[in-house]
Write a structure and sequence with these properties.
The protein is an alpha+beta fold. The chain is built from 7 helices and 10 strands.
Length: 262
């Protein structure tokens, strides 16, 4: 997912995605953008926010009818450059759970990490009004399956391996159900990983993944004018401040206040 910074052709999905996001923004000067990032870790069926001072705090999954599955209290941070995205990624790396096995002395023990980039774009339409679209890019780093005979895992490492493997098995079952046109049930509830990825796999989305997932057929549509868009809230606050400033400049009785008592 991360690859190596040099040479450029060895860079992974994450740095390439960071650059692509801001490349698109720089090429669209007639729109206003708000870009945020969040990074979570799924560890032994527990969700942790990797970008906060206390990453060991357990977070809960919630669901809203119009929004879908989300993580309660997961913090997203506004960013304005590729460099700021890399800084958040590095913060998350330092907070990830790490443990040793016989095959890897410094193995990350997460079932997965999900680096999410919500993007909101505001544009003035033909009607003279501001219209907002929003989307979300989920970059998911899945753990590899583990065999106890090879890793010689015991105790905590053995428990981690069981949870990792169970998450991957459930993910495989979900993908199989999605590509089977006769399937009546998608087993998203089999693990927190598949619940977290529910919208990314079978929702209003485009999915890029390995072999079996290539056969998933979704029909994503553009999310226009969402009521809870953060960019809209910022714009309304700016407009209120402008109105307050204009009223102050007019002064009592509606007279304008100029320089040097003019």
């Amino acid at each position: 997912m991360e690859g190596k910074p040099e040479p450029p052709e060895l860079r992974g999905f994450l740095p390439r995605a960071f650059e692509q996001v801001f490349k698109q923004i720089d090429g669209t000067p007639n729109k206003q953008f708000l870009v945020r990032v969040s990074l979570l870790e799924l560890y032994n069926e527990e969700i942790r926010d990797l970008l906060v001072n206390n990453p060991k705090k357990k977070l809960d999954l919630r669901e809203k009818p119009d929004f879908g599955v989300y993580v309660k209290d997961l913090i997203s941070f506004p960013v304005q450059s590729v460099e700021e995205m890399h800084q958040k990624l590095e913060t998350g790396r330092k907070n990830r759970a790490v443990g040793a096995t016989s095959m890897n002395e410094g193995s990350f023990r997460s079932h997965s990490t999900i680096f999410t980039i919500p993007v909101e774009a505001s544009e003035i339409g033909p009607d003279g009004q501001s219209h907002i679209r929003m989307g979300r890019l989920n970059l998911v780093d899945l753990a590899g399956s583990e065999r106890q005979s090879k890793t010689q895992a015991t105790g905590d490492r053995f428990k981690e391996a069981i949870n990792i493997n169970q998450s991957l098995i459930t993910l495989g079952n979900v993908i199989s159900a999605l590509v089977d046109s006769k399937s009546q049930h998608i087993p998203y509830g089999g693990s927190k990983l598949t619940r977290l990825l529910q919208d990314s796999l079978g929702g209003n989305t485009k999915t890029v993944m390995a072999h079996r997932a290539k056969n998933i057929k979704n029909k994503p549509k553009i999310n226009e004018d969402p009521k809870d868009a953060m960019l809209r809230e910022f714009q309304e606050e700016i407009n209120n401040l402008k109105n307050q400033l204009a009223q102050f400049q007019r002064g009592p009785g509606g007279f304008s206040i100029g320089k040097d008592g003019e």
